[in-house]
Amino acid sequence: MVSKQIESDLGYVKDLVRRSDPEPTPASVYLLWAAIVLVGFALPDLAPGRAVGFFWMIAGPLGGIASGLLGRRSGLRSGQIQREIGIRHALHWGGMLVLTALAVLLALTGHIPPDELGRVILLIVAFGWWSAGVHFDRIFLWLGGLMMLGFGGTLLFERYAWTALGLLIAVSLVIVALHRGRRHAKQEI
């Protein structure tokens, strides 16, 4: 009887310790952005013109809102809702959105050539993902670094560089999501 009580107590403590570690980015967020990136990065090669800007004007903010909702849902399920972390995420990703809007103003006012706007935004997003890796989830260091390398690819190659980069990032995000999903399933056992 004492053995069963000790086992129960240890299980309770183990669960508390597991829950005390902040939950990494949910797999659903990675899958969402894999789809958005795959479509958005292919557009400059497959449907250049206004479709690219229009897509990102809608998909960027809506993807950010959906990511926040998915993160909140994950936090509620794990019992780890922390308001201050939610605020930090909103400030981080919202700041990246504001910088992107300011970069668009640079192109609209003629301070940078409009055909270079995509690269400028890629640098902003790469740094945003990199710094998310520093402050939130280490995997974003790798993903931000991948974007930085991809920036170089857009300078070196003209044909399908954006599509190739989008495919590479999307596949990486799916791999991360699958890994996170397996790890989460093991933790629940």
Explain the overall architecture.
The protein has one domain (27-187). It is built from seven helices and no strands. The protein has helices at residues 2-20, 27-46, 50-78, 83-108, 117-135, 139-156, 161-187.
Fold blueprint:
Layout: H1 2-20, H2 27-46, H3 50-78, H4 83-108, H5 117-135, H6 139-156, H7 161-187
Helix pairs in contact: 2-3, 2-7, 3-4, 4-5, 5-6, 6-7
Mean pLDDT: 86
User: Tally the helices: what do you get?
Assistant: 7
Q: Helix amount, in percent?
A: over 70%
Main sheet characteristics: none
Shape: elongated
Query: How many beta-strand segments?
Result: 0
**Oligomerization status of the protein chains:** single chain
Low-confidence spans: pLDDT under 50, at least 5 residues? 16-21
Distance between the termini: 23 Å
Q: C-alpha Rg, in Å? A: 20 Å
Order of helices and strands: HHHHHHH
Class by SSE composition: mainly alpha
Domain unit count: 1
Strand-residue proportion: under 5%
List keywords for this structure.
189 residues, mainly alpha, 7 helices
Brief account:
The protein is an all-alpha fold and 189 residues long.
